[in-house]
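Thought: the user wants the 3D structure for the chain below. I'll pass the sequence to the structure tool as-is, report back what it returns, then summarize two notable features.
Action: structure_tool
Action Input:
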Amino acid sequence: MDNPNCSIEHRKGQHLTAEERHDIEVHLKDGWSKYRIAKHLNRPYNTVKNEILRGTVALYHGKVFRYKADAGQNQYKQNRCSSARKYHCLETTDFLKYVVKQFREEGWSLDACFGYALQSGKFSRNEMVCTKTLYNYVDLGLLPLKNIDLPEKLRRNTKAKRVRENRKNLGRSIDERPEAIEERIEFGHWELDSVLGQKGAEEPCALTLVERMTRDALWLKVKNHSAEAVTEAMQELKSIFGAHFSEVFKTITTDNGSEFSKLSMQETKETKVYFTHPFSSWEKGTNECHNRMLRRFIPKGKSFTAYNIDDVLFFADRINGLPRKVLGYHTPEELFEKELDRIFAA
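Observation:
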């Protein structure tokens, strides 16, 4: 029976076969040139030339050199045996144990483990494997971790981003925000959001603020999901930072949720408030990423009544203590404290 999918024509990049090596040997004896043999086999000239170099052996006590198909095939098999990917698990055992320990006990990402260990000099580069290799080891089962243990890997969303027409007008649009804020080179620009546990008018929730440059997060438990509760929380922040509030909070960007309807009233000459377009949470993506981190501690559907204010602050401290690749493997807490020292010392 004919098989229409069967073809004897070689594919690009396919290795030479034993039959082709035999043809090379026969045609060389017939006096063919390398170029003619390459055209006959429909192979690149360099492929044939390199094969002849590999399979040429010395005969008659080194007085004659001739290509032998068997020698070329044996050399090919030997090269293939040593071409398999090498894993360095045994050579990096201490580092892998360190990664597993930091991942399980401190909640670090695999990249944070690699970057911090390298930057701090805890391990030399030849005692480690890179971030990509760590993820490969998880896929291959070479680490006692699973993909489901990695909080972000299974949550990647490839939906296209689009801006919808603004239906609410709670205040100044993000379109008016200075472009320099996008560069994250100045301290004091924050993103604000709220995180619900269970739905309900009187259910407590968390107010989450993230500083764009340092990625430091402030998580506050508020009494409910209302504009009045948000106003009280902002007043509490003003009392904490006192006269330096406008230096720490230069701008605040939030969404069009009803709980932020009175936020524009908190705006001052020094502190500006901006609102994203509706259904465009990606416009304050730093805060959205940190909200997912909060869900590691308080999953969706679980009421915030089970947690007190100190619990929420503790969760924020854990996240702020994670080294970040984007920060050169410093922690948000380090950079935030440095900025506060600069402001309060002035």
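Final Answer: Structure generated. Strands lie at 56-59, 64-67, 189-196, 205-211, 217-222, 251-254, 272-275. The chain has three domains: 18-81, 93-155, 174-345.
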